[in-house]
């Protein structure tokens, strides 16, 4: 089957090609790519051609709290990082006091010792996520933030690490909306699905 001349190539070339010549192959020549026309065996320089495409994301922040939905979000983030050859940062934002956020707000201004059980739980979760990334061949680091406000911890981690994407679970959506309203980078959420179905990214 005869090839039809390709007009888009002609408009991109630094020098014109003759009618009937179809530049259909790229040949490396030093630091410059050259187009090879099979019909005339000529190579034409393409100094303006971009040889590499920059990936959309290079460092991904994955917020995790040890829940099943957060594990789904971590798996999603690691899979995406592997496809993009990006690195990941796992963040566990923990409330360091027993009694939840109400007690945390009461002692926010005081120097209160971190509950060892809370710290151990967070460390076990981060170790599990670290193993997930290592098994996938993805570079990773972990961060543990003691903050009663997870959205604040996530935003601070983005600023500290230079991540260009946030991945997190969105059980009710309130936390994700607070992060989305204040962050300067894209947010990918993993939402709960119906029983028996996998979590859905959105």
Summarize it.
It contains six helices and nine strands, in the order αββββαβααβαβαββ. The protein is of the alpha/beta class and 202 residues long.
Structure in words:
The protein is an alpha/beta fold. The protein has a single domain, classed as Rossmann fold (3-Layer(aba) Sandwich). The chain is built from 6 helices and 9 strands; from the N terminus they run αββββαβααβαβαββ. It has helices spanning 7-12, 68-84, 100-106, 116-135, 150-161, 174-182; strands at 23-29, 32-37, 42-45, 59-63, 87-94, 140-146, 165-170, 187-191, 200-201. The strands form 2 sheets. A 6-stranded mixed β-sheet has the order 6-5-4-7-8-9, with helices on both faces. A hairpin with a 4-residue loop joins β2 and β3 (42-45). α5 (150-161) packs parallel to α6 (174-182). The longest helix is centred in the middle third of the chain and has 20 residues, at 116-135. The chain is globular, with a radius of gyration of 25 Å. Mean pLDDT is 75; it is low at 3-15, 21-28 and 41-51.
Protein structure class: alpha/beta
End-to-end distance:
45 Å
The CATH first-level class comes to Alpha Beta
Would you tell me which CATH topology applies?
Answer: Rossmann fold
Radius of gyration: 25 Å
Give the number of DSSP strands: 9
Domain tally: 1
Helicity, as a percent range: 25-40%
Q: What would the average pLDDT be, to the nearest integer?
A: 75
Biggest pleated-sheet summary? 6 strands, mixed
Low-confidence stretches: 3-15, 21-28, 41-51
CATH superfamily: HUPs
Order of helices and strands, N to C?
Answer: HEEEEHEHHEHEHEE
Family: Belongs to the universal stress protein A family.
Protein name: Universal stress protein
Domain UspA: 57-184
InterPro entries: Rossmann-like_a/b/a_fold, Universal_stress_UspA, UspA
């Amino acid at each position: 089957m005869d090839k039809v001349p390709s007009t888009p190539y002609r408009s991109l070339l630094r020098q014109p090609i003759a009618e009937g010549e179809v530049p259909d192959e790229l040949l490396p020549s030093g630091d410059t790519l050259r187009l090879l026309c099979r019909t005339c065996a000529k190579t034409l320089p393409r100094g303006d051609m971009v040889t590499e495409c920059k990936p959309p994301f290079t460092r991904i922040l994955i917020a995790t709290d040890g829940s099943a939905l957060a594990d789904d979000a971590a798996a999603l983030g690691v899979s995406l990082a592997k496809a993009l050859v990006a690195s990941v940062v796992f963040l566990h934002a923990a409330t360091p006091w027993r009694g939840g956020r109400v007690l945390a707000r009461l002692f926010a201004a005081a120097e209160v010792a971190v509950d060892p059980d809370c710290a151990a739980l967070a460390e076990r979760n981060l170790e599990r996520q670290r193993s997930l990334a290592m098994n996938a061949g993805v570079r990773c680091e972990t961060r543990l933030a003691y903050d009663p406000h997870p959205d604040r911890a996530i935003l601070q981690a983005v600023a500290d690490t230079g991540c260009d994407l946030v991945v997190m679970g969105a059980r009710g959506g309130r936390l994700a909306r607070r992060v989305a309203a204040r962050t300067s980078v894209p947010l990918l959420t993993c939402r709960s699905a119906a029983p028996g179905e996998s979590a859905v990214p959105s």
